[in-house]
Specification:
The protein folds into 2 domains: 158 residues, Spore Coat Polysaccharide Biosynthesis Protein SpsA, Chain A (Alpha-Beta Complex), CATH 3.90.550.10; 189 residues, Spore Coat Polysaccharide Biosynthesis Protein SpsA, Chain A (Alpha-Beta Complex), CATH 3.90.550.10. The protein contains 12 helices and 14 strands. The two termini are 41 Å apart. The model has no long low-confidence stretch (mean pLDDT 89).
Length: 376
Amino acid sequence: MDSCLAALAALDSQTARDVILVNDATPGLDSLLDDLPGDIKVLRNERREGLVACAARAGKQATSEFVVLLRGTSEISPGALDPLLAPLSDPSNAAVAASLPLRPDSHPACTHAVALRRSDIAGLERVVGVEPGDELAAVCIELAYSGRKIVTAPDAVVTEARPRISPARAKPGEELELTIVIPTLDAASDRVRSCVSAIQATTDAAHEIVLVDNGAPPQGFSAPVNAGLRAVDTPYAVVMNDDVEPKSAWWPPLREALDGGAAVAFPLTEGSWYRTDFSAWCFALSRATLDEMSHGPGEFFDPELRVWYQDTDLLTRLQSIGRPPELVRASRITHGLSVTVESEDPELKAWVSETIASDRTAFERKHPTVPVNTAD
């Protein structure tokens, strides 16, 4: 972000401009944003909303006729602003895409910045929710429906955000305290990157992250979680869905609950539905619980319960010994509501549905007196 802001400060233009930065629920940026100069307006989203929703919010704060949308923390070259805005003086042009470095004829769909009229932002409702990375291309397509042109400005160069190289987050050689296990169908997805970024920004304890990519073929939930937990060699472990993002200071309250005798502790989910008895999309356990409550050697969850009901099985077993999972309200997360189970892929959706049915049969056979429902 520093290089992006430096590039904005170095713009060589006579055009008066505002800079509006929208933090789209990215954790760990508060101290940086609080130190920004007063001429930069900072807006903060409580939940991730995407570039176009951020643009709509910023557009209400803007005072100029034209708006430039930057993808992420992309860097605009010093002389790019005037040639990026100039084509908008022609009313037949709806949007102007910045060019890529060394590619003045780059296609608008590849751009990292788009200039458009502020009055057009309100008409982009259909673009809200487009996959991250595709938003600017979708903006261009949507504006083209008006019959106006989308052009590229060859002299307006905007460079993709530089890859972030994280410094060490704990002292080299420090003993690990925590292992975080994340099962996923796609370890390269934006959802997983957001999850891992949130963990890195909010976890002060020395920790390791175990990503288990089980997308080829999909194996459900129990198998990848069990595989990840077999790698645990730390006093504590957390199992976290890939659509979870922890909030600031989320880990110490969970650790305190475990040290106080909880077999399993889980955080409060902000902004969406959650269970008070056990929200299993994020839960913490101690090494002792891992050893004592595993279904079998090397299998924490019952592997016969592949996609669903493994959390209810664990809840039932913990309740039977008088140590149910503990909700820790001082620990906060957000959750994307199981987007994998709700997949639109027809083959995956059919497999999930069939597997849930067989999981239910297996659970009822194992716990015939415990009521279950399809929303479990």
